[in-house]
Design brief:
elongated; Rossmann fold; Four Helix Bundle (Hemerythrin (Met), subunit A); alpha/beta; 471 residues
Length: 471
């Protein structure tokens, strides 16, 4: 039984999609004014992993993740760089794709942009005004928070308890316009020199929260299966999305809410954040560390748990990923001398299927990637034991390969069959070294090993012959 933790109810629930076999999933995307840091990438990778597992389990996932391309930060960055807000957004959307492609994140079914949905946003806000869930003051439009009786349900807060916190976040000049301090902006009147659009309330631009409500319901319908994002979005962003969406449609906005934990840094495990200045850009890290290692590091922790970013954890991810790749290379190596079948094939095939079922059981428990990887490592150990046997069979090798590949694909790991295609010059050197060893010319054998090592080729002498891998 597939269960996921629903932030709305604070418990694990059996996952039941609206349409059997299909999942509608909306994940809050980046505000595109800069490169994404590792904390941003964590959310992107976490829910890509969730999506991949759903697809592995046979679901057809319609996955929507937005770009916020209208925002104060974008306007400020545009002024700093002497570009238009649209040029800034275009620039950083392109770099987002570059970085997430390097991390082997699947492209979303749709990546809507705010500027492409402005007419729908204005119409959505107008409907809330018509229904008396919103009111207009001097060109600004605010949501009547107290009118929505369920407000605070997602973040488990009462509306009265929110008043003091809301007062601290609001600017003094905007507080005086509101009927209630907890009301929030749906539409903002334009300031001089800012990008704006024509609306029934004058020139202006949308508030942040309304944008996601409009794009999510427009592309996925009035009710979503899953709405996801970082833990810090639970309040106020997702809370506000629920209020305005359900007031507009009259339907439950999302049946399941999923939130990923933070990436932390330092001895105090402080949350990685641009505002705190303690961040590492994904764009920079993947220039220094294999992007597959970064992806594996980000995907290996449970999505709801904090993830500590440090050199030790990156090294652990490197070691574990190399072990997985080496096991795969050793498996491929044995195909050349494999038998058509062996007497114990049925037993080993059943064992592989049992391991795959154990993986599903682990991952069905709220996408528990650490427990899932424990099963993957068990599969790797069994592969290594099998490939070190004197005799192996094609059916078993193929079963190991298919299962191993399918499970690691969920974690964004792409395995290559490159080592089946040994370059002539590398193979010639390996053959020469083998002959030198047979002739007891160990000096020449060591010389060839050192030469290959200098070229990034590591040799492994086994009972089945010499194998190689890239360092």
């Amino acid at each position: 039984m597939l269960k996921i933790y629903n932030t709305l109810t604070n418990q694990k629930e059996e996952f039941k999609p609206l349409v059997p076999g299909n999942i509608s999933m909306y994940v809050c995307g980046p505000t595109v004014y800069n490169y994404i840091h590792i904390g941003n990438a964590r959310s992107t990778v976490a829910f890509d992993t969730v999506r991949r597992y759903f697809e592995y389990r046979g679901f057809d996932v319609k996955y929507v993740s937005n770009f916020t391309d209208v925002d104060d930060k974008i306007i400020n960055r545009a002024n700093e760089e002497g570009l238009t807000p649209e040029q800034i957004a275009d620039k950083y959307i392109e770099t987002f794709y570059e970085d997430t492609d390097a991390l082997n994140v699947k492209r979303a079914t749709k990546n809507p942009r705010v500027v492409e949905n402005m007419d729908d946003i204005i119409q959505f806000v107008a409907d809330l005004v018509d229904k008396d869930f919103a009111y207009v003051v001097d060109g600004d439009v605010y949501y009547r928070t107290r009118k929505f009786e369920k407000y605070g349900q997602l973040s488990d807060q009462s509306i009265d308890d929110l008043r003091a916190g809301a007062s601290e976040r609001l600017e003094a000049d905007s507080q005086s316009k509101k009927e209630d301090v907890v009301d929030f902006a749906l539409w903002k009147a334009a300031k001089p020199g800012e990008i704006s659009w024509t609306s029934p309330w004058g020139e202006g631009r949308p508030g942040w929260h309304i944008e996601c409500s409009v794009m999510a319901t427009k592309l996925l319908g009035d009710t979503l299966d899953i709405h996801a994002g970082g833990h810090d979005l639970t309040f106020p962003h997702h809370e506000n999305e629920i209020a305005q969406s359900e007031a507009h449609t009259g339907h439950t906005f999302a049946n399941y809410w999923m939130h990923n934990g933070f990436v932390t840094m330092g001895d105090d495990d402080e949350k990685m954040s641009k505002s705190l200045g303690n961040f590492v850009l994904a764009h920079d890290l993947i220039q220094q560390v294999d992007p597959q290692v970064v992806r594996f590091f980000l995907a290996s922790a449970h999505y709801r748990s904090p993830l500590r970013f440090n050199e030790e954890n990156i090294q652990d991810a490197t070691k574990n990923l190399n072990n997985l790749k080496t096991a795969y290379a050793n498996l491929n190596y044995r195909f050349k001398d494999a038998k058509d079948s062996l007497d114990n094939d049925a037993d080993i095939l059943a064992q592989i299927k049992h391991i795959e079922n154990a993986f599903i059981e682990a991952m069905d428990d709220d996408i528990n990637t650490p427990n899932g990887l424990t099963v993957v490592y068990r599969l790797m150990r069994d592969m290594n034991v099998y490939t070190n046997q004197k005799e192996v069979s094609v059916p078993v090798l193929e079963a190991f390969k298919e299962t191993f590949t399918a499970l690691l694909t969920i974690f964004g790991v792409t395995l290559s069959d490159e080592q089946e295609l040994l370059a002539d010059d590398i193979q010639a050197l390996i053959d020469e070294r083998n002959q030198a060893r047979a002739d007891k010319n160990f000096a020449r054998a060591d010389e060839i090993r050192d030469q290959l090592k200098a070229e990034g080729i590591i040799l492994d002498d086994t009972a089945q012959g010499t194998r190689w891998k890239r360092a």
